[in-house]
Input
Amino acid sequence: MEMMDLSCRQFLSDLAGKAPAPGGGGAAALVGAAGVALGNMVGSLTTGKKKYAAVEAEIQSLNARAETLRRELEELVQADAEGFAPLAAAYGMPKDTPEQQAHKAAVLETALNTACAVPLQIMGCCAEGILLAEEYAAKGSVLALSDAGCAAVLCKAALQAASLNVFVNTKLMTDRSRAEQLNQQAQGLLERYLPCADAVFTRVDRRLRED
Output
């Protein structure tokens, strides 16, 4: 069964168990999808309202982007599970002889490199989710302002969680040049978008606390 076809209860039960998937990457994708969905909800509550007629077209455009992004993150929940399978298999390969050791090392290196791909995709999606949350917070219905802030916070958490799934794999790679390249990609996304998410939260928090 596909991960996204599981009930919330079953997904969490599997996440808490010994199975290798779902894991941190899949959970990050799901949290990111929830963040994007919350932003989309702000847009849904904004469209069609006379008060926001001036931004109707912009909100509809944001909603279309959000729906596409949410579906991509949903697909990445499954992709993360499938991407981890070769890595798990590589760890289980025999290494009794020098030939087996060399073969395992080569297979493991490829699997580690592949295992970084999905978390990086998740990070990219969450970065876009943060930008959407920023737009929703600025232009969406004030009645759903808190949800825009929650969207930014969830996408931030998912961005950070996915980064750890990059770093845990690059740490084990023998090709340090490739590992550093992947690390720089992940670090660049963190440095650019974490402050953006924090700024959205701060602005929303301030507005909600105003007298």
